[in-house]
């Protein structure tokens, strides 16, 4: 039996690297397959196929916006991915905006922001994140030499860490930002695949999401949020589709407002429709049940890892923090790249190794892990296991068995956990 929440894969290959790119949801594949015969231009043709595709694209935009709780006056702008969405927002900031972020962010939420961005230290608990932000925004509002300032401020935070899987207190951070007259953008690249994310309910101003991490691997992402900055900013790309009028003189251009202003060029129809299909499938699913299932796998994995004495996990907030299905760890005395390669070669298990495009955070957590355990033989990079829809207890057990065999080749086999 197959269903819309099945993921595609290759028999025998165990994919535990969803946080990098999740597999394709059947619903996304079906939507793309269904549309392919109709494939034609979007916003650019008078034919029936083109009209069908234009409608499909705009319906998909609506579906994605609804799924993420967009307010009626928000824009839903189709991008390539989260990196693209955050770069777009960075270019749309009003002059003089100060961005405030944390040092624990993915590079996509560290590097696009302008000079003068405030990078707050990585907090050791969700409550500390809220307190640190409060203090920083209070200080910013006080202004230089105590002269109060009302210049725009944007807080940029992740919803869930791609290194530790820990969830950030997004709603509380949004309340704090708004209390100080700031706006907030949430990088939901890792949160959205695991829990419902609703812009209006969280009261955040902008949301950035990647389709390929949300089971829609056809190259679309979105930036959703407040229209005013986006409509006032220069277009992200200059070109066809972003204009209202182009005169003969070189600079006689009136740019469009609305999402089209930042979507010049032919849009990614199939990617957008695939992402919308995932949104529809997830909206119809029992998310609480999916979450409970994922949390059970997470407990199984973390319990199994904790039973391997050489394994040290990476964490920011503490062992009991709320998490999504992502775990990073090191094996003391062993090279992480070599372990990842052995898992792939000998066990057909795909995981990620490295510093996960969050170098400042990963380095800090590796140092913290060394201090916590007193071990001096931890490697300089880590391993990351991540999962979601379609992942099974058997896959987790196979990984744990493989790790036990790699870590202690001649030692006793891992004790089997309860089913
Ligand atoms: C938390 C987080 N933000 C942003 C990104 C960037 O996503 P993309 O590569 O799809 O732009 C990633 C990718 O790993 C991520 O984990």
From TrEMBL:
Catalytic activities: (sulfur carrier)-H + L-cysteine = (sulfur carrier)-SH + L-alanine
A Pfam match: Aminotran_5
SUPFAM superfamilies according to UniProt: PLP-dependent transferases
Source superkingdom: Bacteria
PANTHER family attached to this UniProt entry: CYSTEINE DESULFURASE (PTHR43586), CYSTEINE DESULFURASE 1, CHLOROPLASTIC (PTHR43586:SF8)
Family of this protein: Belongs to the class-V pyridoxal-phosphate-dependent aminotransferase family. Csd subfamily.
Name of the protein: Aminotransferase class V-fold PLP-dependent enzyme
Phylogenetic lineage: Bacteria, Bacillati, Actinomycetota, Actinomycetes, Micromonosporales
């Amino acid at each position: 039996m197959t269903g819309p929440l099945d993921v595609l894969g290759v028999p025998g290959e165990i994919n535990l690297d969803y946080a990098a790119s999740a597999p394709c949801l059947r619903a996304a594949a079906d939507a793309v397959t269904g549309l392919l015969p109709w494939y034609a231009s979007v916003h650019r043709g008078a034919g029936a196929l083109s009209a069908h595709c234009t409608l499909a694209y705009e319906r998909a935009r609506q579906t994605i916006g609804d799924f993420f709780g967009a307010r009626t006056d928000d824009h839903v702008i189709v991008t390539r991915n989260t990196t693209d969405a955050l770069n777009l927002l960075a270019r749309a900031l009003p002059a003089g905006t100060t961005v405030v972020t944390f040092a624990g962010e993915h590079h996509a939420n560290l590097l696009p922001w302008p000079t003068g961005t405030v990078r707050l230290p990585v907090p050791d608990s969700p409550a500390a994140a809220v307190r640190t932000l409060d203090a920083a925004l209070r200080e910013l509002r006080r202004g230089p030499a105590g002269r109060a300032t009302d210049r725009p401020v944007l807080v940029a935070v992740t919803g869930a860490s791609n290194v530790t899987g820990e969830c950030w207190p997004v709603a509380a951070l949004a309340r704090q930002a708004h209390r100080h007259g700031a706006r907030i953008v949430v990088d939901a690249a890792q949160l959205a695949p695991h829990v419902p994310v609703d812009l209006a309910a969280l009261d955040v101003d902008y949301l950035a999401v990647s389709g390929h991490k949300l089971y829609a691997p056809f190259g679309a992402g979105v930036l959703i949020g407040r229209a005013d900055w986006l409509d006032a900013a220069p277009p992200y790309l200059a070109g066809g589709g972003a204009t209202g009028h182009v005169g003969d003189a070189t600079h006689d251009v009136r740019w469009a407002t609305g999402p089209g202003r930042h979507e010049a060029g032919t849009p990614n129809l199939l990617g957008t429709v695939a992402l919308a299909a995932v949104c529809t499938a997830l909206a119809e699913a029992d998310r609480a049940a999916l979450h409970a299932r994922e949390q059970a796998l997470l407990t199984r994995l973390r319990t199994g890892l904790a039973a391997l004495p050489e394994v040290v996990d990476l964490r920011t907030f503490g062992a009991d923090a709320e998490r999504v299905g992502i775990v990073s760890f090191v094996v003391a005395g062993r090279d992480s790249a070599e372990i990842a390669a052995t898992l792939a070669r000998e066990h057909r298990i795909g995981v990620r190794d490295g510093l996960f495009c969050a170098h400042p955070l990963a380095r800090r957590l590796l140092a913290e892990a060394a201090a916590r355990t007193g071990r001096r033989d931890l490697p300089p990079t880590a391993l990351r296991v991540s999962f979601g829809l379609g992942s099974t207890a058997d896959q987790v057990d196979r990984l744990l068995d493989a790790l036990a065999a790699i870590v202690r080749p001649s030692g006793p086999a891992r004790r089997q956990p309860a089913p």
